Amino acid sequence: MSWLVDNFGLVAKLTGNHAALSIIPIILGFAIAVPLGWIANRWLAVRSVIIAGGSLLYTIPSLPLFVILPYILGTRITDERNIVVALTIYAVAMMVRTAADALAAVPADAVEASIAIGHSRWTRFWLVEFPLSGPLLLAGLRVVSASTIALVSVGAIIGSANLGYLFTNGKQRDFLTEILIGIGASFLIALVFDIVLVVLGRILMPWNLRKRSTAQRSSANTGQGV
Amino acid sequence: MQFFLDALRWLLDPANYVAGAVSPLPIQDRIGEHLLYTFLAVAIASIIALPLGFYIGHTGRGRQFVIAFTGMMRALPTLGLLMALFLIVGATVPFTQAAFVASIIALVILAIPSILAGGYAGVESVDPQTVDSGRAMGMTEIQILMRIEIPLSLPLIIAGIRSAVLQVIATAVIASYISLGGLGTIISSGIGLNDNDRILGGAILVTGVALVVDGVLALLQRLSIRRGSSESGPNKKMSVADHSDRRRWRNQPSMKGKHVQVKK
Amino acid sequence: MIEFQNVSKRFPDGTLAVEDFSLVLPSNKATVFVGSSGSGKTTLIRMINRMINPTSGTILIAGEDVSGLNPVSLRRKIGYVLQATGLLPHRRVVDNIASVPRLNGVPKGKARHDALTLLDTVGLDRSLAERYPDQLSGGQQQRVGVARALASDPDILLMDEPFGAVDPIVRAELQVELNRLQRELNKTTVFVTHNIDEAFAIADQVVILRAGGVIAQVGTPAEILSNPADDFVSTFIGADKGKRTLHLQHREGDSATLIVDDEGRPAGILGDDK
After folding, report:
1. Contact B40, B103 (CB under 8 A)
2. Concatenated DSSP letters of C43-88
3. C46 touches chain A (CB under 8 A)
4. Domain range summary for chain B, segments of one domain joined by +
5. Which end of chain B has fewer CB atoms at under 10 Å, N or C?
6. Given CA atoms C109, C111, C113, C119 in this order, what sign does their dihedral have?
7. For B227-248, how does the pLDDT look when each residue is reduced to its tens digit (9 = 90+)?
8. pLDDT tens column, A180-198
């Protein structure tokens, strides 16, 4: 613990950079995946291509992708932009399927009613489909957030200045505390991001506050025998 | 572009497949090692996680725990886990085996959440009426699990395993940095020697292996769909909106998207 | 014979489904529980095979307290048919029917052979044996459900709104089939429905229930029709709307005598004396 106090500046800086590296992929991933998901939902032919494409990208292992990207993008291997691009790719891949499913899960009646009222496709999306798919989208976003933050540290292997440095450095110096502090800080970032997302969700979707678990109710009623 | 062609040429060069060469070659040995570690870790994780998942899915107890647990594990940095375990294990186990033991433990830990989620989600997704009628017929709880719930939840179980396998393959690459063998050594030796062929070739190779293994599992998942399986996984043709009303509440976000989302 | 003695059931969430219910269900006869939702009828029937356990009171089957019996072996000796059929979707029809015998250790060949015979019994063509449940119509699935319930030759048959999900014509056919089976096989049948006409069509003994499993009236269909116990029963059987009081109406030139209810709505024509 005293190590933390002594090196607080370093840890703080790494934490800050770690968080910064995480934010762009999360936001960009969401911004790209939702339209893709919407497209996938509208045109069934394209749906399999988009979803399959997402699955394919998601299958690429992390370190190899960090390593391949410099060759494609023309950046140096240690350039942090590689990591941001790679994480964005993963974020999109993770989020696209959720987005498609979330938009598909919007009750058909609500959509039909909105068409009957006279919404255009644009207003229908922004005022009906997007809000109603909100809860599922938020859940998917929380998953993407946690996963992205956890993945950033892998970039330390190719020299990125984030909390992953504490892991490699800790191992080299045989210093477990350093590693644990790094893990703790990483969890902290993930927790903070998650709280922010949940709060954002509550503010933007106040109708969604009461979530009953139907499973719990129905099992009470069937009253399982011995 | 030229880099990729060179790398591919390097990959296809038979000289790199000569047995008995200096590590990280020959390539086939590394592939074999990598697959072995993956298989080992996933098998151990399955033995631990599947029965637990079945229990939770069948009895409904511990649902909150599973959701919280998988959520937490998702935020765990793989590199951190690896390094921490390496130091912890290295304190008690001789150096030569420390890398292996630490890595396998880390890989098992990382594989458990997906498999657990797959087992639990699968069993939970079976139509409660079918389970009820099985019970009313006079099946014991175990019989219900073995004859009804598991056969009908195979697609989701395999989906969970599939996620875990991807996770493990990716992490095993990183583990090469703590001297575990496998395909990561090709990349790391490439970085050390500043050899683009090795770096890129290794990366392409791992990606290829991951795609092939995932493809095989996807096929298995497809084949495991029986009539009455409630989910057919990522290759489902119909959209979620086609589900009947009574399924709509099953949109538990953490389980949706049959690549049960964990880290890489 | 099945006997309920002061049976009550309160669910964990506080609902009192059944309160102090006592009744004897005679052997080899069809007893029908009728009531609206919340009358506890499903709860009552599910207590017979211990899918639900009473909070107080005793249930006896042939004099034995069911709470002392092993639930799994008890259920294998009782046939259970539910509205959603609950057929195993991943097994063929013939294997579904053979479920309980197989659980009891009957060899596969014999069990399947007996299952085919049961298909005859419930009036289904043997060609359906190798199909999967989702390839059958609703009415066919229900018949398979009944066949499955009969497979272990149980003394008791429990049926929880089994014909609720099929259309009226198929429903009427199934009621006729059930009556035939009842005459042939003489099981002790407990049947649950919310449809009073269905109850009258099937039952030897009708049990009309109010909310909370309170018995409004017990009797044969004839007894209930001729002497409804109170206003609740009258309303329930439709007597207050004049549906049950019928008159003859014959006008000049009609070929048959019309039967009309109190409001003048036609209900049928007069046939020859039975």
Report:
1. no
2. HHHHHHTTSS--SEEEEEETTEEGGGS-HHHHHHTEEEEETT----
3. yes
4. 31-250
5. N
6. negative
7. 777 554 443 333 232 333 333 3
8. 999 999 999 999 999 999 9
Check if C50 contacts B (Cβ < 8 Å): no
Spatial strand order of the sheet with C2-10 comes to C16-25, C2-10, C56-61, C64-65
Alpha carbon distance A7, B209 (integer Å): 41
Q: How far apart are CA C233 and CA C206, in angstroms?
A: 12
Residue C53 contacts A where some CB pair is shorter than 8 Å: yes
Contacting partners of chain B (3+ CB pairs under 8 A):
A, C
The whole-angstrom separation of Cα C175 and Cα C189 is 13
pTM exceeds 0.90: no
- What is the CATH code for B31-250? 1.10.3720.10
Buried b (16+ CB within 10 A) or exposed e, C123-155: bbeeebbeebbeebeebbbbbbbbbbbbbbebb
Please name the amino acid found at residue A124.
R
- Name the range with the highest mean pLDDT among B61-75, C45-59, C224-238: C45-59
User: Which residues 173-212 of A are in CB contact (within 8 Å) with B?
Assistant: 174-176, 179-180, 182-183, 186-187, 190-191
Verify whether the Cβ–Cβ distance C103 to B151 is below 8 Å: no
Taking residues B124-149, what's their average pLDDT? 92
Give the closest residue to C262 by CA, choosing from C248, C244, C242, C238.
C242
Q: Which residues of chain A lie closer than 8 angstroms to C50, CB-CB?
A: 225-226
Residue among B81, B114, B255, B264 with most chain A CBs within 10 A, to mutate:
B264
| ipTM confidence score | 0.81
Helical residues (DSSP H) of B75-183, grouped into ranges: 78-92, 95-124, 128-137, 141-144, 150-175
- Number of neighbours of residue A66 by Cβ within 10 angstroms: 23
Q: B79 vs A168: CB contact, 8 Å cut-off?
A: yes
Bridge-based pairing state of the strands C56-61 and C2-10: antiparallel
